[in-house]
Amino acid sequence: MFWNEKMETLKGQELKDLQLKRLKATIKQTQNIGFYKQMFKEAGITPDDIKTLDDITKIPFTKKSDLRGGYPFGFLAVPMNQINRIHTTSGTTGKPTVVAYTKNDLAAWTELLARNFTMVGLKAGDIFQNAANYSLFTGGLGIHMGAEAIGCAVVPSGVGNTKRQIEMIQDFGVTALHCTPSYAMHLTEVAEEMNADLSSLKVGCFGAEAWSDNTRRDLENRLGVKAYDSYGMSELFGPGVAFECQEQNGLHIWHDSYLVEIIDPKTGETLEAGEKGELVVTPLVKEAMPLLRYRTGDITMLMEDECPCGRGPKLARFFGRSDDMLTIRGINVFPSQIEHVLKNIPDVGDQFMVYIDRINHLDEMTIEVEMSKSVFSGELADLSRLQAKIMKALQETLTIRARVELKEPGSLPRFEGKAKRVIDRRTV
Ligand SMILES: [Zn+2]
Fold it and tell me: Yes or no: is domain 326-424 CATH 3.30.300.30?
């Protein structure tokens, strides 16, 4: 099922022609922004120097810190009387940045979300509960607009009050749920405690955090949904930039609306399909806040194989953020790797926390892991066996030693928004 079959399946020269036309228009639009005018001047280029898609590498990258420097409205390419909505980024990695939208921007964003939800089989008749933060976070209103556009009955439940959320799923017969994967996991635990029947649910759309295939299997088994990965960021409109299709093997990014590059995060060099690196995106249909070669900080790769659904090249599921990446004793570790290891060990609960310290000039990683209820009430010898097993599995995957502390079920923090599982206590 397609929402816009022509655009979703556009490939080859026809796609390239459209991308180039839109790239040129986007570059023109950026010249209303002081930052970009200056950038072109300093790089010794003019908009006319960009004659092909490959010429994009002549343009320097735009970084999140650049956007912060323009706070609040330094990156607007249109006057305020054309702005229709203002959001801010979630501020996961520091001070929030402002993002703004014209009427056309809101329509373009809604269209991309409508494509995503249609792609996973949602349509009029579905009851869609959006358990995302509705304030400045784009996952609230953004997702809401997309689900409404395809005719779903949208329940804007927001975050928190988990018991009430579960009652609504039951009472309304909710068929689709959107939230962060960590909140979905929390909601699952609470529903199990309440012995709630969530059998009306069919589809789960989970995003705003990197999550593993093991978490997917867990959520699918326990919630009875097909769980889809959703990717986006406020600077690129919000959620809906890329989304899994029913194959559940990589995320389709909308190539008519986003020009994709994968780069080596250290050197900035362009990488080929199949090589893991940082996602760099030039949005092609943004009016209020056009961006060029925006460094997302997210690590993925372009997949080489074609998807049976007929849409364009996919991004691999995200490996984490380049700034989530921990360097411990010189070795790169992503929290998603730790999650993956823990999920594969029976008797380990759903929650964990990672602490990094520097003790006597050496990095030490401590991982607190919640046990399942059954192992917690069992023998002490079982606990030390479990602890040893976790340490061995972590060492095999991460190639470094981590201290493991077992914690009582329910004792570690739960997250309703984005999970913050890593506390780096090292001082430089
Ligand atoms: Zn597909």
Answer: yes
pLDDT of the residue at 414:
85
Q: Ligand 1 centre and the CA of 1: distance in Å?
A: 11
> Domain 1-321: which CATH class?
alpha beta
Q: Strand runs (DSSP E) across 265-385, as ranges? A: 277-283, 294-300, 314-315, 320-321, 326-328, 331-333, 348-359, 362-371
**CA-CA distance, 87 to 135, in Å (whole number)?**
8
Displacement of CA 29 from its chain's centroid (Å): 27
Residue that has been written with the tokens 């380990």 in this structure = 348
193 C-alpha to ligand 1 centroid (Å): 36
pLDDT at 242 over 60: yes
Averaged pLDDT for residues 285-308: 96
Give me the amino acid identity at 319: F
CA of residue 203 to ligand 1 center, whole Å: 16
Distance CA 255, CA 5 (A): 13
Separation of CA 246 and ligand 1 centre (Å): 7
Q: What is the C-alpha separation between 154 and 111, in angstroms, rounded?
A: 16
Q: pLDDT value at position 428?
A: 55
* Domains in the chain: boundaries: 1-321, 326-424
pLDDT tens per residue across span 182-217: 889 889 999 999 999 999 999 999 998 778 888 899
